[in-house]
Amino acid sequence: MAEESDFLARGRAVTARLWGARAGGQELPAQRLAPEFFSLVTQFVFGGFWSRPQLDLRSRSLCTVAQLAALGKTEELRGHLYGALNIGIPREELIEVLMQTACYAGVPAAVNALNAAADVLKA
Amino acid sequence: MAEESDFLARGRAVTARLWGARAGGQELPAQRLAPEFFSLVTQFVFGGFWSRPQLDLRSRSLCTVAQLAALGKTEELRGHLYGALNIGIPREELIEVLMQTACYAGVPAAVNALNAAADVLKA
Amino acid sequence: MAEESDFLARGRAVTARLWGARAGGQELPAQRLAPEFFSLVTQFVFGGFWSRPQLDLRSRSLCTVAQLAALGKTEELRGHLYGALNIGIPREELIEVLMQTACYAGVPAAVNALNAAADVLKA
Amino acid sequence: MAEESDFLARGRAVTARLWGARAGGQELPAQRLAPEFFSLVTQFVFGGFWSRPQLDLRSRSLCTVAQLAALGKTEELRGHLYGALNIGIPREELIEVLMQTACYAGVPAAVNALNAAADVLKA
Amino acid sequence: MAEESDFLARGRAVTARLWGARAGGQELPAQRLAPEFFSLVTQFVFGGFWSRPQLDLRSRSLCTVAQLAALGKTEELRGHLYGALNIGIPREELIEVLMQTACYAGVPAAVNALNAAADVLKA
Amino acid sequence: MAEESDFLARGRAVTARLWGARAGGQELPAQRLAPEFFSLVTQFVFGGFWSRPQLDLRSRSLCTVAQLAALGKTEELRGHLYGALNIGIPREELIEVLMQTACYAGVPAAVNALNAAADVLKA
Q1: Considering the entire predicted model, what is its pTM?
Q2: Which chain F residues touch A44 with a CB distance below 8 Å?
Q3: Taking CB atoms and an 8 Å limit, are D104 and F103 in contact across chains?
Q4: Is residue F3 very low, low, confident or very high in pLDDT (cuts 50, 70, 90)?
Q5: At residue B72, what are phi and psi to the nearest 5 degrees?
Q6: Is A26 helix (H, G, I), strand (E, B) or coil?
Q7: Prediction ipTM score
Q8: What is the Cβ-side half-sphere exposure of residue B31, based on CA atoms within 13 angstroms?
Q9: Max Cα distance, chain C (Å)
Q10: Which residue of D has its CA nearest to E39?
Q11: What is the 3-state secondary structure (H, E, C) of E51-83?
Q12: Exposure winner among B54, C34, D15, D104, fewest CB in 10 A?
């Protein structure tokens, strides 16, 4: 069984691919309030799930963008759209994922996602 | 501008790839109650969105599975898991998408999705 | 300021219009577990909101059906569809409300609502 | 079977009744990012669902306001409140729909909706 | 059976404990639009539920904070965090409730809650 | 930094308090489909969050019950109601938490939660 430090190391390897130097550069109010929370997230989300070899990074990124759009989590959506662009997913494909959200979460969810994405994805 | 019959033809081409002969074979109570609704869905969802060339069918299928799991729509999830298997997405990748749902929609959403998927995805 | 018993009396007047003798006849597990809860609901939901004169009963019923469909609360939806039929809303209009749910809450929400409604609304 | 251009024509007839000259006048970031999305929405939402004769425009407008309030889609709610006023629904009735949202989606959903509606509906 | 004025008196006793003089001091746009709504909320939410003796105020406050975080109702969350501090719940415990939200409603819900809480809960 | 096995050991200590011998005894379809998922959940949810000393077990249990009721996750709610009873929370307090859910997530969410809880919490 792997050590906790393995979770952290694997998680940081994933976030570095998604956001590079920006991974540690953002400073949310939540990070000052609860810094341990973000350490746990890196270990669990990126070290525990995203780093598993059963699914490629591109698919994980697309599915995350799709879920955040459907759930209306627009701030996180913007972060993951940057990550998706960084690993080479074309902006046209990301727009298409957001558009298709209308079918499963309703038109307003898609409109909100496209509005939130507009400056990240503009040509 | 394309004709409405184009929407329907394009939509049926997509559902045939996803579900083959099964596409028209299911008989939900809703279909007897509101048959026109399902004609509109074929035209709009599959003919209007899924048939656009900007994103491949595999990516659309994965994103749909991810959204249905996050939104807790387990009946539709099962239908789209069958479709995903039919177009060649390995069951291991689909399980992984459902697992990762825990990160963005919470652990109970992932457990519910895995429970709903169990007989569709069993080895 | 009205007395609490006014809330209860007004609430019962509304539920009698919606469900008649059936209003007190249903026996949910929750009613045995928490009978006081249902007394509060009659006072607050039907006595506090539905009995206000600013909006007619038909509009309140349609809006409730629409919200329950959008929120995926299918058991309550069935109860309010019975109520809507009892106050004279035609089944064709109720089906239409459920269909339109696809636009704002997504296609799966509409399909689930139509499935739940099928035996209540069948011709 | 109707042509696609029929969907568009019927959809535009509905949006003209709801928003008149304003229908094409708004300029969301999403519209610059994904103009084809909004053409599909006009065809499908307004041309495919709203233009069906089985339910009157007033009922469709009230149900849409109710669903957007319940789902917390405040930007779209404001747009549809303008539309509801334009087709003659009194502001007192719209406030009542938003208030009743507390019963089915919780008090915070109703408060958020009333806050979002305040300048649109002020006397 | 108690009178309606009892609901109001009991409700005001609860809000006074949670927010003291601030209880009546906030002025939301919704309050100008629908003042009767807030009177009903005081009677029903605080007079009808919170004032029941079966559960202590601390537990009710924690559960409310937990639910508002899970549901993404950040404005109401901030109000109830102030109330929780006023009745003596330590800020460390409130941060912990928000962190644990990640398990049941997903990481983005927890991040949004922590961001909304940051200035209320800062040391 | 702690080892991963510490997460697992701490997580198992929490689940043993909540469910005792039952903790490993349930057999969901999801557990056969994705056994690794449940190992990750034990490590992350119970070892990473619940085992932190900043909040007592009773408060964590109440908040979890409150969130699951608000989110409509009835299967998980039942499991956590068993856990809550096992650590000594009186059934009257749990019923009260479920009732209060009506205020923040709407009456149907509370009714569904009370229905799901009825046999677990019956006197």
Answers
A1: 0.96
A2: 40, 44, 48
A3: no
A4: low
A5: 75, 25
A6: coil
A7: 0.94
A8: 10
A9: 46
A10: D99
A11: CCCCCCHHHHHHHHHHHHHHHCCHHHHHHHHHH
A12: B54
